[in-house]
TrEMBL record:
Alphabetized GO MF terms: hydrolase activity, acting on glycosyl bonds
One Pfam family of this chain: NAGPA
Name of the protein described by the UniProt record: Phosphodiester glycosidase family protein
Electron transport in keyword set: no
Matches recorded under InterPro entries: NAGPA
Boundaries of every Phosphodiester glycosidase domain copy: 31-212
Alphabetical UniProt keywords: Glycosidase, Hydrolase
Source species: Paenibacillus timonensis
Highest rank taxon of the organism: Bacteria
Length: 216
């Protein structure tokens, strides 16, 4: 992208809060996006550090988050070890609170086989093959977005976290992070959804997206 400002976040109904949802394509169209993917579905939870377009909306540290910076870089961080104030001082424009981190400093996370989702999701393993959405970084302002369909026989089973991380590494990413997946996984490009959400070509409402406006 031309600069880091080209990667933006948008909220369902332009409002921050629990249980406010629209489909990825609806939010994208409302904001003139040329490209969009679903975000972290922050509205499903009550915790996490949520900074969007430079505004701090929630400061309830809980897990490994992702920070996107004004200089076009990104890095995973421990929400319980880094303050929201320090993130803003460092020029963070967006934070996502889902995870896990897939790649850090060029290395695939070695513990992906044992990752557990936090208790808001029942503390169950997410290692099995599932639809996925993720973001990776090759170089400043050079991002990679990957959406994997799944749960549809004779089409796609999805990917494990380890397989998903390998895709980002094969694409040359030095950092990569797992966003909300499953039925939420959606990729929108130039006016249409280009994947098969829920294996039924039917989008699920989400609370937020990452998007690129026209002209970037």
């Amino acid at each position: 992208m031309k600069d880091s400002a080209a990667l933006q976040s948008a909220l369902a109904e332009n409002s921050f809060g629990r249980n406010i949802t629209q489909t990825t394509s609806e939010i994208a169209e409302d904001h003139g996006a040329v490209f969009a993917v679903n975000g972290d579905y922050y509205g499903f939870r009550e915790d996490g550090v949520i900074i969007r377009n430079g505004t701090l909306y929630r400061d309830e540290p809980a897990r490994t988050g992702l920070a996107l910076f004004q200089d076009g870089t990104m890095e995973a961080y421990d929400e319980q070890q880094v303050t929201a104030e320090s993130l803003l001082e460092r020029g963070v424009t967006q934070t996502l609170s889902f995870g896990p981190a897939l790649i850090q400093e060029g290395q695939v996370n070695a513990d992906l086989d044992n990752v557990k989702i936090d208790t808001n999701f029942g503390n169950r393993s997410i290692q099995s093959a599932n639809p996925r959405t993720g973001i990776g970084l090759i170089a400043p302002n050079h991002y990679v977005f990957v959406v994997v369909d799944g749960r549809k026989e004779n089409y796609s089973r999805g990917m494990t976290l380890t397989e998903f991380a390998q895709v980002f590494q094969d694409l040359g990413c030095t950092e990569a992070y797992n966003l909300d997946g499953g039925g939420s996984s959606t990729m929108y490009f130039r006016g249409r959804v280009v994947n098969n959400p829920q294996g039924k070509e039917r989008e699920r409402g989400v609370s937020d997206i990452l998007y690129v406006p026209e002209g970037n």
